[in-house]
Structures are given as structure tokens and as C-alpha cells.
Amino acid sequence: MFDTAILLAAALVAGALNAVAGGGSFLTLPALVFTGVPPVVANATGTVALLPGYAAGAWGFKDDMQAPPGLSMKAVILLALLGGAVGAGLLLVTPEAAFRKIVPWLLLAATAMFAFGPQLRQWAMGAQHGAAPSRSKAALGMLAVSVYGGYFNGGLGILLLALLGLLGQTNLHAMNGTKNLVSALLTAIAVAIYAAGGVVQWQPALLMMVAATLGGYLGARVARKIAPQWLRAGIVLTGLVMAVLFFLKA
């Protein structure tokens, strides 16, 4: 009962965080590991729990979606699916002991990406004034970020927004639309592969899915009352604490 309460609380807050700023996986993964779920299974199960939020975000921006320069929307979709599948496949073949050692570094990297997200996006938007990346480089970048997302979801949104800025996209609504579409697609195919590989614990995943969806709704309602800088600081602090705890357990 205590474990269930921890998972529901973590998913509720994670859904709220994802709705307003991102960083929900900083809570779902550690909560699952704390309750005794092996790290690889915890990563897959937490990703399943957050999938509805990605799908809802993609639907909400459906009218704003626009492929970045150098890529067609069809190419974006195919690369997202391919990358998500490759990343999920890599997770399935990663031994638990190895993943346990990788997790704190992934959490630390994701926290850094979140902390410096605004600067990263500004740099990406400034870099686009040079020569536009070739189609092959654009495709390689989209594929690499999608593989990362299929393997480990943390910081995915920041990476995608930075990539889209580098590719020359300037309309923020279009960037968010494409980001949400890619996130939803690569997560959906990754979840299917996780399920086929038997690394999803469905009971906690479904419970957390409901809590995360409710948290997303509540987070959207409450977001206007909290200063963005405090939200960001809280998420960064959470990520750092979780990374340290995983380093100590590795």
C-alpha cells in the first residue's frame, strides 16, 4: 500500500511537471526503483505511464505542426519511429547492472540539459543564421535524438527544441508541435517494444498513467500561479538529488 502511494504521488507530480515545464521522468524512474522495480524495467514502466501526456500534447498542437527545413513531415515521422525503436531495442539488451551504472549519468545529463535549456535554445536559434544543415545532417540529428528518447526519455523535449532551432525552425508553436509529435511517436513505438520484450510492469504502469494524466490537468491549471523560475529550480534540484542517490547506489 505504501509503495502504491509513492508511485501514485510521483506520477501525479510528474504529470504536472511535464504539463508546465518537463522533468517528470526525474520522479517516475526513482520512485519505481525505490519500490523495488529493476532499473531497466523501471525506465520502461515509467515511460509507459507518461505516454498519454505526450499524445495529448501532440493532439493539442496538431494545427501547428510543421516539418523543419531539410526534412519532410513524412521523414520526421519515419525517423522518430525508427529512432524510438532502436533506442528501445538498445534498452532491452542493456544488462541491469550496466544500466544501474548508466542511470545516474543519464539523470545528470538530463538535469544539465534542463537547467541550461533556455541558453541551449538561444544558441541553437542563433546558430541557424549560418548555412542550413544538409538533409543528411538533419536526418542524422533527428535520428540521434529519437534514439536517445527511445532509450531514456529525460531531457528529450529540450534536445528536440534545440535540434529544431539548429535546423532553422523559428516559429515556436511549430517547434512545439513537431517536438510533441516526435515525442509521442518515438515513445509509442518504444512502449510497444518494451511490452514485446516483457520489461513493463503493467499494474504500476496503468496506475501511474491515470495519476500522471490527472497531474497533467491539475498542473496546467496551477501553472499560472507559480513563477517559472521557481518551477525550473525545483526540477533541477530534484534531478540533482536523484542523480546523487543513484550514484550512491550504483
TrEMBL record:
One GO cellular component, as annotated: plasma membrane
Spans through the membrane: 71-93, 102-120, 140-168, 180-199, 230-248
Superkingdom in the source lineage: Bacteria
Segment forming the signal sequence: none
Keyword presence, Transmembrane: yes
Keyword tags: Cell membrane, Membrane, Transmembrane, Transmembrane helix, Transport
Major localization class: membrane
A Pfam family that the UniProt record links to this protein: TauE
Subcellular location(s) per record: Cell membrane
Topology term for the membrane: Multi-pass membrane protein
Family named by the database record: Belongs to the 4-toluene sulfonate uptake permease (TSUP) (TC 2.A.102) family.
PANTHER family referenced in this protein's UniProt entry, alphabetically: MEMBRANE TRANSPORTER PROTEIN YFCA-RELATED, TRANSMEMBRANE PROTEIN YFCA
Name assigned to this protein: Probable membrane transporter protein
